[in-house]
Specification:
mainly alpha
């Protein structure tokens, strides 16, 4: 066939291939994920005075809800659209690959932190203080069973419980997408709420440590509710709430009323608030993600969503851009944050926890998180790979004679020119 007819049946040049437009990132999602990474770092530094001013000290929800909710929203963009555009096999493969990444991220964080404790004990010659007091002594004293437990996720000590929870929820994602696709939104809502109803009672849970009756601190079958709430908002399964003064007042009222029942100095020293906290415990238990935590978090999320403005127009400036970069590299930053928080605690043990030392250590840790985010983004950009040129349209060939028809060429047995 001639060049002309390979272009079009009429001899016209086809339009140049276009590169699919990349969906713009939501600055609100990136910003709040980044903010959550900083809060998680601060919260995990042992005996950190800065942790007294993070949101968790003034309410029942905390940075864990931010991390899980925003992860659900990000998963709707990354995985939900893939199921739509490329089908079930591609979607399942992508989710399985992400689970694989999260699994090895969890193993790596555990092993690095264990090595940090061992190195600190050797360097300081303190008789194994850190290994014994950071919850990892069973791993060192009963290594065979706990090594197997680490690899099978049946040994999940306190500091290392967020990524396993996230992994299990990710594994539920394809099932949720398929239920919605084949049975509709009401069916998927019934499925999510049904799993939550069973999970929040503790009827299904996962073992925390070999040979004990402990369970994962974050029960994924309960926590999937906040993940899939974010997922549903981003997928359009749930309508975006309007900016309404009455809703804002209701959300603010929930936050303000609950502050004294969550603020530790008041709970510890005022009998009324202490009794109130105990009475609310069946509704605020963190392990099984009881419903008042979701109410508190959604109230907080609604207010910050309103304050961010439509499309995040109120979020701008260099600090916002830095926070967004951290949010865009959430998994790598989270891993670094857990390790750095333990290093920071060891440093503060040696320097003392005065105002200056605490401030310097926290600021240094946050700065390193930013460095990790930018470094991860640099390597993800694959700067060693040359950019592929965009195909350019070929100029039409000049002709001295009109084109013959394909039928004429067939009749003569010769070419179509």
């Amino acid at each position: 066939m001639s060049t002309a007819f390979s272009q079009s049946p009429f001899g016209h040049q086809p339009p140049a291939p276009t590169v699919p437009a990349k969906r713009p990132r939501d600055v609100r999602l990136d910003f709040f994920r980044g903010l959550g990474m900083f809060i998680i770092f601060i919260a995990h530094v042992p005996t950190n005075s800065w942790a007294q001013v993070i949101p968790a000290r003034f309410g029942f929800s905390d940075a864990t809800e931010i991390f899980v909710f925003c992860s659900g929203m990000a998963s709707a963009v990354a995985f939900g659209k893939l199921f739509d555009d490329r089908g079930v096999i591609a979607g399942l493969s992508r989710v399985a690959f992400r689970c694989w990444q999260v699994y090895w991220a969890h193993i790596a964080v555990f092993m690095v932190c264990a090595a940090v404790y061992v190195a600190a004990d050797d360097l300081l010659a303190n008789g194994g203080h850190y290994v014994r007091n950071q919850g990892l002594w069973p791993f060192f004293s009963e290594t065979p069973s706990h090594l197997l437990g680490l690899l099978t996720l049946t040994y999940v000590p306190g500091l290392f419980n967020i990524l396993p929870m996230y992994l299990v929820i990710l594994a539920l994602l394809p099932l949720v997408v398929l239920v919605e696709r084949h049975f509709g939104r009401m069916a998927v809502a019934a499925f999510i709420l049904g799993v939550y109803a069973i999970g929040t009672t503790g009827a299904i849970s996962l073992p925390e440590q070999p040979g004990t009756s402990g369970i994962w601190f974050f029960n994924p079958f309960a926590w999937q509710l906040v993940f899939f709430t974010g997922f549903a908002f981003m997928r359009g399964w749930l309508p975006v709430p309007p900016v309404d003064r009455r809703l804002m007042i209701a959300a603010a009222t929930v936050l303000v009323v609950l502050v004294p029942f969550a603020y530790v100095p008041l709970v510890d020293n005022v009998e009324f608030f202490r009794d109130g906290n105990r009475a609310l415990w069946p509704l605020i238990d963190k392990t099984h993600f009881r419903p008042l935590r979701l109410v508190h978090f959604l109230s907080f999320a609604y207010l910050v969503w309103v304050l961010a403005g439509e499309g995040g127009r109120h979020l701008s400036g260099p600090y916002v851009r830095i926070c967004c970069k951290v949010g865009q590299q959430a998994l790598g930053v989270f891993m670094a944050g857990i390790v750095l928080s333990q290093v920071a605690g060891i440093v503060l043990d040696q320097t003392g926890r005065g105002l200056l030392a605490t401030s310097l250590v926290n600021l240094a840790g946050c700065t390193l998180l930013v460095a990790v985010a930018y470094t991860a983004a640099y390597f993800k950009s694959q700067p060693w790979v040359a950019a592929k040129p965009i195909p350019q349209p070929r100029p039409p060939r000049e002709r001295s004679e009109p084109l013959a028809s394909p039928s004429a060429a067939a009749m003569t047995g010769g070419p179509a020119e």
